[in-house]
Amino acid sequence: MVGFTPIDGGARLTLDIPFGSELSLGDSVAVNGCCLTVDALDGNRVSFDLLSQTIRVTSLGNLKPGSLVNLERAMSAMDRFGGHFVMGHVDNTGTIAALEPVGQDHRLEVRIPDELARYCIDKGSITIDGISLTIANLNGTLLEFWITPHTFGRTNLQDAAVGQPVNLEVDMLAKYVEKLFTARESAGI
């Protein structure tokens, strides 16, 4: 992260992005799992305007100069789909409860808000700072994950610390299923 400048309740976030020169104004880029719109370009230096809602709902307001962030470009309709459904719409934040090396891997625990626990299942997926992860163990609002060396070395987890807030995006399909069942119950079906 290069800069974070407060502006009228919101802020301007500026990053050095390796693929910045390939972006255009208006393009979407997920930053720590939060879909943002490119507002200004200067080579690889890219700026995004953050709404007050974005700052309130995400952990982006906690970034400091030099913070490592996860970046992901929007998927093209012609791209191969090879992962979980991730929209870049942050539902809430959680907190890293544990992060420790175990052999070549890392064990990560994240505490999530009560209202998101209903969308989580054992071996289901959730996005932590834009990293789509499989839940290895579910204990109420405490989720456990096993992180491979590949994922650990290519994400902001290498700089993460216990107590740090992280952006959460629960499984979109779980939210749709809940809405459909709620509508059926309301209709008496």
UniProtKB/TrEMBL annotation:
UniProt cross-references to SUPFAM superfamilies, sorted A to Z: Riboflavin synthase domain-like (SSF63380)
Alphabetic keyword roster: Repeat
Enzyme kind, highest EC tier: transferase
Lumazine-binding repeat positions: 1-84, 85-181
InterPro entries in the cross-refs: ATP_synth_asu-like_sf, Lumazine-bd, Lumazine-bd_dom, Riboflavin_synthase-like_b-brl
PROSITE patterns per record: LUMAZINE_BIND (PS51177)
Domain Lumazine-binding: 1-84, 85-181
Domain of life: Bacteria
Gene3D superfamilies (alphabetical): 2.40.30.20
EC code(s) of this entry: 2.5.1.9
Matches recorded under PANTHER family: RIBOFLAVIN SYNTHASE, RIBOFLAVIN SYNTHASE ALPHA CHAIN
Protein name: Riboflavin synthase
